[in-house]
Every structure is written in structure tokens, then in C-alpha cells.
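Recap from last week: sequence in, structure out.
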Amino acid sequence: MAIVVNMPRLSDTMEEGTVAAWLKKVGDKIEEGDILAEIETDKATMEFESFNEGTLLHIGVQEGETTKVDELLAIIGDEGEDISGLLNGGGNASAEVKEETTEEAAPEVEEASEETAASAELPEGVIVVTMPRLSDTMEEGTVATWLKKVGDSVEEGDILAEIETDKATMEFESFQAGTLLYVGLQEGDSAKVDELLAIIGPAGTDVSGVAASFSTAAPAKKEEAPKAEAKKEAPKSAPVAASKPKTSAPAPTPVTANGRVYVSPLAKKLAEDKGINLTKVQGSGENGRIVKRDIENYEPAASAASAGKFVPSGQEDFDDVDNSQMRKAIAKALTNSKFTAPHYYLSVEFDMENAMSFRGQFNSIPDTKISYNDIVVKACALALKAHPQVNSQWFADKMRLNNHVHVGVAVAVPDGLVVPVVKFANEQTLPQIGAAVRELAGKAKNKKLTPDEMQGSTFTVSNLGMFGIDTFTSIINQPNSAILSVGNIVEKPVVKNGQIVVGHTMKLSLACDHRTVDGATGAQFLQTLKGYIENPVTMLV
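Predicted C-alpha cells:
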């Protein structure tokens, strides 16, 4: 089943992309999540991962070449599959093209996806706007706020809505002009990338048929797709509907005549997460299809089995909180890091007396304020220049030793954790680092960080000292090879010159990827770091 992979929109302003490097070649096996290529956008060069598996059958854009968003990038399918029909169309595709089969054995649950999508020509001038991919890892988005309402006039470049991604809340601008005729998602609702978001067209145009042919579970067909869609037969959901008894009331059950459940993919996923048996759910969608709201509103019937039995006076109580896009992204990234990178940990304890004195003297300068975290970031940056192995990245076929130093600084936000990046940290002064960290942290807490401000780190610092944590370990922020965990400065008895005196120490733990950083290499890095932190004046030389 051949799948056309189009040039993705990896930033909110991206209109075209350049293939910087292919990580796979024609004939290679592709697994879901594999990095296909590095794409240069208008903001950064990003890794583009595959959402499909199969064999890479065709590459439509060579390294160094540029193409517009949604034009043909590659084709993935079964080994030896004939794709001449896809290529003869001119090489451009605006939507995934999947060969449909109706005679194959169907799964227990039938997904209502392409089958219910639009198969007719769109009315003249009507544009279907789909959920954009606003970050390289975004799989679905949530409408935080609509800036336009149905009936409003929309100009090219107007902000339609604020979209919450897995990394930040971003403004999404319109690339078309017209009237906002239909809104497919309400504020707070979520949909996967490329699903229906809105419809724009000439004022007064009836788009009820277009909107009805889409669902929040179906991959939205963009405006370039009608030619391909026109070749399809009538929606395959029609025979399913015809098999139901004719009645003016909603279908009493979502189970079709052949025993399969008619459900949207999003509702199916929610049901799996909640452990709900779909055959017990009443569908409220078209033809009795189970949709998202049916799962969210489902309540199992109360059991009478406990009648006459002792019922405890206590009551179990809990609150379900939907995972935000950021929380889902954090879970995916950290799980991938923990189970793919062989972590090991090196712990040290530094004498902070000189650092405390240095900071006090430095902050006595008018209009100057640096934190201990700024000192650690600067020290790490200088130490990384001396130990490029720690400033590295692992790839399947190579190891990249970075000559530049971009330090990611973990920042806690209400939804989880983000890692804005201080670029070229080794070249910045302590006040410059302090100002950059404060600005980035402020943007992070207001969800105003841009993708460019969160990309490209070569090393990460995570500091929980301000929360009173003495020591901890962190999971590596891939593709970095290491992350430094910084604890609190503790007053304690120490031995100096054979005497027990009151001292101040700080514990640090370095998590390393053993594929790139050996134990001795990590230890040498910490020794260099010790020299800078215990004698910070050396950072000014």
C-alpha cells in the first residue's frame, strides 16, 4: 500500500523546504519513527521522521533541492510495489494516497477515516484548512483560541487561531483570503495534523456538504486533492449505512451488519486509553458511528450485583486530567531516550566557597546580577569546548562532534518541562547568559517560545537546587550525549587543611550516553568543570 510523503510544514511560517540530507536511501526498510531526512526550513534544520513503515520506493527531492510544502518528497510502500501510477501524475501530491482494498480481512474495529472523507469536487473558491504541523514532533494540536469567527472576512496573513502544540502555543496565520465559513474544532478541542480545522471561501457559499464529508477522525483532504478524489467511487460507508434498518431514530447500536464496530480513529484511541468496551457505547455520529464525545460522555451502567450486600461508607474519588500536547511529547521523548541510550551516571561534590564569594563581588557591580545557574552554564560551555566528545550526538552510522556549544537549560512550566537553548554559550559573558536565560524562561512560562529557541542544543543543564534538592539524576535530552543535574548548595562540615570547618558544597550528577561518552571521558569533563566552578575567576581570563 503505497503512501505519498509530502514536504512537511515544520514551522508556522514555512512555505518551502530544502533537503539538507537523506538519512535513508531508496530500497531501505523504514520503521515508524525512523528519521527520513534533515529538512532545512526558514528557521532551522530539523529531523523529519516517518509516520509510516515499509520500503523507501522513491525520493522526489534530492539533497540540496527545494520544494514547496505539501509537494512530493518521497513514496513508501511494499518492496517491489508498482508506483508508476503515482509518478505519472507529475510527481506532486497534496495528500497521502493509499490504495484501498475492500476484500481483505478487516480488523475487529473498523475505522471511519478515508471512507467518509470528501469524494466530490469542492465548490469553486472553497479552501479546506487543515491542522498544521507547527513543530517537527507535532502529531496533533489543540485550538487554544480562535481569533476569527464564522462569517468574518479573512485576509492572507491574518491570524486565524492560536494552536497549542507539543512545544508551545503558536499563532497560525491564514494563507488564503475569503470568508470563514466553517470551524471544525471548538476552543479546547484537539485533532491530528492534517485533519479538518476550518473552511474558507466566498461569502454565502454552502459548505455543509463539505463539512459533513469530513470528521475530526478523518485525514482532511486539502484543496489540491479533488482530482485524485474524483477517481474514487462513492464513499464506502454507504453500503454500511444501507445495511441498517430504515428508521427515523438514531441507529441503536454502532455494530454493523458484518459484526464490526463503526468508530472514528480518535474515539477508538480514547476508548483504548480509558479501557472502554466499544460494543457497550452508543454512537451519536452519522449512521451510529462512535465519535470522540461518545467516549468522553460514556458512563457504564450501574451494577445491581451489590444489592443486599454491605456497602462501605467511603467513596473512591479521582479527577482525570487530559494530557496536554506538551506532556505527551515529554513522555514520548524521555521514554525513547531512556530505552535507547545506555545511561550511566557520574556524581561529584564541588567546594562552592570561592563561587559564593565570586558571585557576591560580581553582583556588587551596578545593574549586574548573575545566578549560580549562570555560573554553571558558562563553566559547562567552556568545559565542553575542551571535551568535544561530551558535546556530541549519536547517529546510526556516525558520531557528530559539535564544534559549537549550544547549552539547553531545563525550565519547569505548568504543563511540564521545556528546554530553551542558549546559543554559543561559550562565547557569551556571564551577564549575557543570565539575561538570555531569564528571557527564555519568561517566554517558556508564557508559552511564547518559538521552535528555533528550543532546538539545536548540544548539552543540557537541569537545576533543581532552587527547590532544595541536594542530588538527583536526569534523563538525557536526546540527541545530546549528556545532561548535568545540579543540586542545592549545602552548608556542612568539611575537612580543610586537616581541620573540620563549616563549608559549602554542591553535588552534581552527569548522565552520559555510553555510546558516545566513555566513563573516563565523562570523568575528565567533570574535572575540567570542577576547575571552573571552584575557581570561577578563571572563566574571565
